[in-house]
Write a structure and sequence with these properties.
The complex is a heterodimer of chains A (327) and B (536).
Chain A lengths: L18 H21 L3 E2 L1 H4 L1 E8 L6 H9 L6 E5 L5 E6 L5 H16 L3 E9 L1 H29 L2 H25 L2 E2 L1 H31 L5 H33 L5 H28 L15 H19 L1
Parallel strand pairs in A: 1-6
Antiparallel strand pairs in A: 2-4, 2-5, 3-4
Helix pairs in contact in A: 1-6, 1-9, 5-6, 5-7, 6-7, 6-9, 7-8, 7-9, 8-9
Chain B lengths: L5 H18 L6 H5 L11 E2 L1 H4 L1 E8 L1 H21 L6 E7 L2 E6 L5 H8 L5 E2 L9 E2 L1 E5 L4 E6 L1 H26 L5 E5 L3 E7 L4 H9 L4 E5 L10 H4 L4 E5 L7 E5 L4 E2 L3 E8 L6 E7 L1 H13 L5 E5 L2 E4 L11 E4 L5 H13 L6 E9 L1 H30 L1 H24 L2 E2 L1 H30 L4 H33 L2 H36 L7
Parallel strand pairs in B: 1-21
Antiparallel strand pairs in B: 2-10, 2-20, 3-4, 4-8, 5-6, 7-8, 9-10, 11-14, 11-17, 12-13, 15-16, 16-19, 17-18
Helix pairs in contact in B: 1-12, 6-10, 11-12, 11-13, 12-13, 12-15, 13-14, 13-15, 14-15
Classes of the chains: A alpha+beta (327), B alpha+beta (536).
Chain lengths: 327, 536
């Protein structure tokens, strides 16, 4: 019986020779994302800016948006955005943060309710006050930083410091590029987006560690081959797995994107982008970093006289392997 | 790698079975599950507000408002103790920032001042264990006669803690009166209260019920001011100006010290006025309250008294005859619902301080139902598509992978149900990403087996070695992801947390499944088919 094979056996793609191109491309994309972030900036949602979002369903099938807009603008609430989502009669109304603290936000939503009460059903209202929005932003950033540190420590213990640096640079690259994606598409950036980015960090690390694991193994096996060739070999060996896993993840994400409803559409789109970025960066960033940081195969030696701390890490890796065997 | 002792097999299959049993109640409606015999696990998933609709309200104690009110009371208390014999002369008594200050005229009286003010520092009992008494106020007496009583940091913190505790109780009593919702009311941080009420159609009513301070007081109206006279000009010391509840209504001049407060009430009910047939709220007073009320009304026939709720006059009826029975009526253009709500507020008691909404999210039940339907459809399609892809790629072993992933998802739901964690929409996303990545562990194993087989090992040796090598990688990769998910769980809030819960559980079950269940299935397959070649 013949099975589907997306990647032929024994590929010999010279990824590390390609690094002259791919590494600068990755750097460029990151830089472009940062520049865009500063110059254009993302479309922050109310989670970070404060303000109000109201989702309504109008009773009539094709509501007159212009009339609705002018009705809301007459309430004198500053910038009010009105847009349809999904069906024709589902409408999202965004009201910017009102000056005058927490109670002012409540008054604003009261006005909108009063104005629309007879023509629409209120499906969702969210109000984030000025105090909370700042905290949410800070907590999100904190979560990201702590995650990075924890991961770096874990990888450093399990591998070598070069691998820790590589996985963090690679993950940071994914985060920055996904930020860039949000800036370019101007999808609303809110708490859920932050969850999307952090997931891609998880995915990126997962992928990077799988590749690193193979690189480490290859390093131990072949001590005389140049590092670049070794890494190429490891990546090519894993190519079948990488493609299949990416496919299944993308299949899951695309079904979520198409059938999962409006609420998580932007979330999944960002994840789809993030997963692609993660694959790209674990091959084109995480691996070359090892070369740039001069990882030497002999660091992978198990001989205890070289460096006790490193061999301890190796011994730990072995032990885990044995533990697994027993289990 | 492929050998399993019998008890190990039993243990693995037993775990899976327990998982299935725990997850099964979620397939049925609540009514069906309730009718099951008592020994069957009945726990069901707690759906997040985004899935079932409801209100999420984050309240914060308004410190400034509370402190200002408390300091105004302190001013009154200080004034009183200064008037005791021998009287102490002072000037400039007033609220200054976070405290009260005054200047003593005669510096030789400073010791006496200290003695009189000491009790007003108001020791608050701290925790029973530490036994350290914290004073609410710090007292500083300057040699130049300047006396300051400032809120101590520890005192304020403790006060806020007490306010939050008390508020939680009051809010719980109020929502309880609504009867229909099962709310969760929790402290958040030091001065916040999170109220989550699922499946409620009318968030505005909930808000008005939860957020109202509902401080009720009865005051005599100052009769020396003629109606229509500019209230401001006629005001005497010891009186306060209180606006009417109705827009455009008059401002009343009331005697500052209340006759009665909400604490003097024992019961309140919505009722109808016998003459006008309008909705009113009737109340009953405590014995002490009834006595006071009787005395006052006896002395003040034909004067008006005002019923004040949260600094607004609801009504100001004129006392026609002494009210001695200890019960009365509040009327004031109520609807049946507002009368009912006021009765609930009076029964449940007042909040010790003003609460402000700092975050509010309301999801209509319709939207929640739409989301859950979409989530279900997407999950089914995602699972089916991934399964089809795996079978196309790996044949029989693809089926094994699919069973493993299915068991994985069942285990996630079992654990979420067991923990009583809330399943939200991002949580479903977490499950789906697990489906995507759980496959990765199988892919790692199978690709490794292929590789070993191509290098010339026998089929069974290749499978053995494949598992051996792949499991280390699976552990490393998943532990890394697990760390990320755990950090998100501890630091995140709202949607991030919802996602982190299922994702973290998903990673853990993925590791478990790869190490045990998948391996067992492959071992059983090997024992059954005894493959000599591997078609992967």
């Amino acid at each position: 019986m013949r099975h589907l094979r997306l990647v032929p056996d024994n590929t010999k793609i010279p990824f590390m020779r390609m690094r002259r191109w791919t590494f600068p491309i990755a750097a460029l994309l990151s830089l472009a994302s940062i520049v865009l972030f500063i110059v254009v900036g993302p479309n922050y949602g109310i989670d970070f800016l404060g303000g109000t979002v109201i989702e309504i369903q109008t009773k009539e099938q094709h509501p007159d948006l212009t009339a609705l807009r002018s009705k809301l603008n007459a309430l004198d609430l500053g910038d009010v955005q009105v847009q349809t989502i999904g069906d024709d009669n589902s409408i999202l109304i965004r009201v910017g943060q009102q000056a005058g603290g927490e109670t002012a936000q409540q008054e604003a939503i009261g006005k909108v309710r009063a104005a629309l009460a007879d023509q629409a059903e209120f499906r969702r209202t969210e109000i984030v006050g000025p105090r909370v929005s700042g905290e949410l932003a800070w907590n999100g950033a904190l979560a990201m930083i702590v995650t990075f540190l924890a991961i770096a420590i874990y990888v450093w213990f399990r591998f070598e410091w070069q691998f820790a640096v590589g996985s963090i640079i690679s993950a940071a690259n994914v985060v920055i590029m996904t930020f860039g994606f949000y800036v370019v598409t101007q999808h609303e950036f809110n708490l859920t987006s932050l969850a999307a980015i952090l997931t891609t960090v998880g995915y990126s690390l997962n992928d990077t560690v799988v590749v690193y694991d193979r690189i480490r193994e290859t390093l131990r096996k072949y001590k005389k081959i140049p590092l670049g060739d070794l890494i190429d070999r490891a990546i090519n060996d894993m190519l079948g797995r990488t493609v299949i896993t990416t496919m299944t993840t993308l299949i899951a994400l695309f079904s979520l994107y198409i059938f999962g409803g409006e609420v998580i559409r932007a979330f999944t789109l960002a994840m789809i982008f993030g997963v692609c970025a993660a694959i790209f960066s674990s091959i084109c960033v995480a691996a070359p970093v090892l070369i740039y940081f001069k990882l030497r195969p002999d660091q992978m030696d198990d001989k205890p006289e070289e460096d006790p701390s490193k061999s301890a890490a190796n011994a730990m890796a072995k032990q885990t392997g044995k533990g697994a065997q027993k289990a | 790698m492929l050998h399993f002792t019998r008890w190990k097999m039993v243990l693995i299959l037993g775990t899976v079975l327990i998982g299935i049993l725990l997850a099964v109640p979620n397939l049925f409606s609540k009514e069906t599950v309730d009718s099951w015999p008592s020994w069957v696990p009945k726990r069901q998933l707690v759906l997040g507000l985004d899935l079932q609709g409801g209100s999420y309200l984050l309240y914060q104690v308004d410190r400034q408002d509370y402190v200002q009110k408390r300091l105004r009371t302190l001013v009154g208390e200080i004034r009183k103790v200064m008037l005791e014999e021998p009287r102490i002369g002072y000037s400039g008594l007033g609220v200054q920032g976070q405290g009260v200050q005054l200047r003593i005229r005669d510096v030789s009286q400073l010791d006496l001042v200290r003695k009189r003010l000491e009790p007003l520092r108001n020791p608050l009992s701290n925790s029973i264990l530490s036994g350290v008494a914290v004073n609410e106020f710090d007292l500083t007496v300057g040699s130049d006669g300047l006396v300051q009583m400032n809120y101590s940091e520890a005192g304020l913190a403790q006060r806020i803690r007490q306010i939050v505790d008390q508020s939680i109780e009051v809010i719980a009593r109020r929502i309880d009166q609504l009867g229909t919702v099962e709310p969760s009311i929790q402290r958040q941080g030091e001065d916040r209260i999170l109220v989550e009420a699922p499946g409620l159609g009318d968030p505005e009513r909930l808000k008005s019920l939860v957020g109202q301070t509902a401080q009720l007081t009865f005051h005599l109206v100052d009769s020396s001011v003629a109606p229509g006279q500019s209230a401001d000009q006629a005001r005497k010391p010891g009186t306060i100006l209180v606006p009417s509840n109705e827009p455009g209504g008059p401002t009343y001049v009331l005697e500052e010290s209340p006759l009665l407060t909400g604490e003097d009430l024992t019961d309140a009910q919505a009722s109808f006025d016998q003459r006008s047939n309008e909705p009113t709220v009737s109340f009953r007073l405590t014995t002490g309250g009834a006595r006071t009320f009787g005395d006052v009304t006896q002395k003040n026939v034909n004067r008006a008294f005002a019923i004040v709720l949260d600094d607004k006059v609801i009504s100001a009826p004129v006392i026609r005859e002494p009210i001695l029975g200890g019960s009365g009526q509040i009327s004031g253009s109520f609807t049946i619902q507002t009368a009912n709500d006021l009765a609930i507020l009076l029964r449940a008691g007042s909040l010790p301080a003003k609460l402000t909404i700092v975050e509010e999210r309301n999801i209509g039940p319709g939207l929640g139902a739409d989301s859950i339907r979409a989530g279900k459809i997407a999950s089914i399609i995602a699972t089916a598509a991934v399964c089809a892809f795996m079978v196309a790629t790996y044949g029989v072993l693809g089926w094994i992978a699919n069973i493993a992933v299915l068991v994985n998802v069942i285990l996630i739901f079992a654990i979420v149900t067991l923990l009583g964690a809330t399943l939200s929409l991002p949580g479903i996303a977490g499950v789906i990403i697990t489906v995507g990545t759980a496959v990765d562990s199988n892919v790692l194993i199978y690709e490794r087996i292929r590789e070993e087989f191509r290098q010339g090992r026998s089929a069974i040796a290749a499978i053995d070695a494949g598992f051996h090598r792949a499991l280390g990688t699976i552990l490393d990769a998943n532990v890394t992801t697990l760390i990320a998910a755990l950090v998100l769980f501890y630091l995140g809030s709202g949607p991030i947390r919802g996602f982190a819960v299922t994702h973290a559980i998903g990673v853990a079950t993925t590791i478990f499944t790869a190490f045990t269940f998948t391996r067992l299935l492959v071992a059983m397959w090997v024992r059954w088919r005894r493959p000599t070649t591997i078609s992967l």
